[in-house]
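Re-running the complex after MR caught last week's input typo. The corrected sequence lines follow. Everything else is unchanged.
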Amino acid sequence: MRYWLFKSETSTWSWDQQVAKGDAGEEWDGVRNYQARNFMRDMKIGDLGFFYHSQKDREIVGIVEIIAEAHPDSTTDDDRWECVDIKAVKALPKPVHLDQIKSDERLSEMVLVKNSRLSVQPVQDSEWRTIIALGGL
DNA sequence: GCCAACGTTGGC
DNA sequence: GCCAACGTTGGC
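Corrected-run output:
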């Protein structure tokens, strides 16, 4: 199993909205970046990901699970764009802020730090465990 | 609100 | 196929 990170601006699609969708989940649409799309194509059902709020909050707030593998993005007719479906699994008791991530040596290689603009990105096993611990799980 | 970093587009 | 111009993202 692999780990991922999904980034969203709170005003566009928030963790609360994701939670409200329950086990039915929702497609992670709107991605218009090849790198991000390619990562989604690599995702398998059962993979887990972090849900990160960009811009104002800048923190990892919860864990999501992939419930449908890559399929055409319903928000466009352009068949280049695909997306996966995800559902909220659980919130982190203590959200992990970007400042914490940047100041932690173990997380210095995270894509979130190195390429802040990529909206869908892979997370290493060790990074996953570190953040889970920081988040209080 | 600014601006750096990055990705994409289109002219040549 | 290169590269300048432009648009977007997201941290600060």
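None of the earlier attempt is carried over here. Residues 56 and 107 of chain A are 21 Å apart (CA to CA). Residues 7, 9, 54-55, 58, 98, 116-117, 119 of chain A lie near DNA strand C (CB under 10 Å from a C1').
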